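Record format v2
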Amino acid sequence: MAEASAGAPSVAPRRILVILALAAAVLIAFVAVQNLASSAVYYLTPTEAKERHVGPGTPVRLGGLVLPGTLQYDAQSRTLAFAIGDGTTNVAVVGNGAPPALLREGTGAVVEGAFAEDGTFRATSVIAKHDERYAPPSPGTTPSHRTSP
Amino acid sequence: MSWADLGGAALRAALPLAIWGCGAAAYGAAKRDGRALASSRWSALLVLVLVGLAILAMEGALVTHDFSIEYVARNNARATPLFFTVISLWAALEGSILLWTIVLAGATAYVAWRGVREMPRLATVALAVLLGMLAFFLLLVTTPAADPFVRIDPPPDGSGPNPLLQNHPLMALHPPLLYLGYVLFSVPFAYAIASLILGEGGDRWLVATRRFALVSWALLGVGIVAGSWWSYAVLGWGGYWAWDPVENAAIMPWLTATAYLHSVMVEEKRRLLRTWNLSLVITTFALTILGTFLTRSGVVNSVHAFTQSAIGPLLLGYFVAIVVLSVGLLLWRMPRLADQGGIGAPLSREAIFLFQNVVFVAATLTVLLGTLYPLIAEAISGAQLSIGRPYFDRVEVPLALALLFLMGIGPQLPWHGASRATLERQFTVPVVAAALGAAVAVVIGPSGVFAVLTYALAAFVAATVVQEFARGVRARRVLHGETAVVALASLIRRSGRRYGGYIVHLGIVVVAVAVATSQAGTVQIERTLSPTGSVQAGPYLLTLNSVRDMSEPQRELVVADLDITGGGTSGHLRPALVFYPNSTQAIGSPGIAASPRDDVYTILAAYDSRAHSWATIRVLVIPLVSWIWLGGAIVGLGAVIAALPPPRSRTRPVTVARVTAARVVEP
């Protein structure tokens, strides 16, 4: 070790530095892990949501197809309503605000929000789901690229 | 000969040449064989010419709409405007990898012809490393993984570029800037690896590639800002940063590269942090590859993700190979990398730089954790989940504020440590400025603790920068009798690295204030209007004139004609929904009235498709958002000033480099 070079400090300041750095690292890691747990939003199909008994108020994202004939938008009250389904289970979705430009009946959608007590899904955000070539997903597929068990 | 024949042949000829050049450079370095080295240099140049030829062939095919090439058929149509036809080179995976390859080939040829002259042995090994990496990318573009010249039975017309990519001219700027930034970092990486292979243990590699690292960092940074501007102007959601995996993939290497640019100074001035700097270079380079893998393989869901392709496993293998080999080399050579001396007092410049480095690495790791956590969770439990904005905002905003604070302190402290008198001299004015900044935020600015802190810290940093400039100008006026303007110009020209750095800091301050203000102060209103109905948003009154259909050769539009008055402006806005023939869905195109004070951002959210009797308009008034783009430009300007060689060394750069190098290496 080349501790002897000109102006090299005594051991104490270095120890302070190391302790400071470690404390910062622990603090940052703590904040990160805390927030990771609270920011994780599960991404489920309507069937999975039913099987897991996702309770009212729990933030969750649902993916499925917008069922034909269900998409309604009341322009004056700006209430958006539609149903999504995965071929087995259907869920009625209610949202506030205009539907996203890409949202169409028969195409994929991802809604984020929580179930209300009456079983309808209150969406805080509605995203139309599409891939690079904007082909709508074929009916019956799960919303993402991979099928979860 | 068709374009596909020409391009395919050029790439297939370049691959063996790159492999040959790699071997020749390695042999030349090992045996000190001049002929092998010459052969390798010519190979590097020829590879560049051949890849250039392939690029020309692809552009030729695009411009002449040669739909017998699958890439052209998928990403071009007869009606595509020429401008978007030309930039379709990077509209999809294969073309992007081709662009990557030409940039890497250019950097390799530069090292072969300029670098080798400056420090023959080190650069020759670096050349072998670069040619090896180039061979990997040539392998990608000559196999089905990313072959841009795959032929198909030509359809009568192509399907046209991805609608999102043909909606805005910024698409011409954003991807090439990012790729230049990503790829140019290969050069510092290659020199670092070369230095490890040779067991030099000194700082030559770092001095030789400092400028490359700076330019690469600046291009990456400006590319990120251009990307957020594109997202703001095209995606129609009223935001500019979403913590999307692709954005994270770009910001992570930028964060570690920023850390590196600062710790380099500690190594240059104090001969410290050698192992750390090598680790940062390796990490930054590995992150550019990891980012490309994440975004190009389809393992993460993202707006940007291209379709799944065989390139995923190859890029992952490349990433793993790079990490394993680099870390192995680093561990093997660690004994030769001992620092000369120790870090000074906690209030010394090197200590603050080190602390800043720790925060940058923490920011990188936490972004990486948030980006990869969904993958980890799915691998472990099979559950699909996403990590939303709240995580990134809550973790990264405090870290960014800490960095802002350190940015104000670090440059103001001397190396080794500061006395009480120095502290008073350096920080009296900035502390007063910080108090004023906080007061401004409380009185007229946005509310919220983080916004007030941002204003205070921004004022603090800005004051340190102004103080530095004022002192430098005053000193030159006293010593050289220059006028204030001449003194400022000569400061910037003669000490470009230092004062360019301050300008970069000023640009970051502008971005920080603009982000804090726009995040905290955005007003959003949504109304359904009938023609001639109006909505008030802040000081602005927006009136809907009509909803009408429009037709352009390559697309159809539904346009809402809005008049905007009040707040000192009057004009027209045309938010639209755009329909492309190759897309089953509409793309929202916002209408934006930009001004230094705020942007009025309008979105056509919904409309009556039968009679055009109503339209739902979403209006956002976003304060100061234009200053983000301006701040990015200031950062770029500062980086140019810092990268320009000072006037005198321009005539004898080689000698200066050699002298520095000799001093370092001599036993």
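The two ends of chain B are 59 Å apart (CA to CA).
Chain B is about 65% helix and 10% strand.
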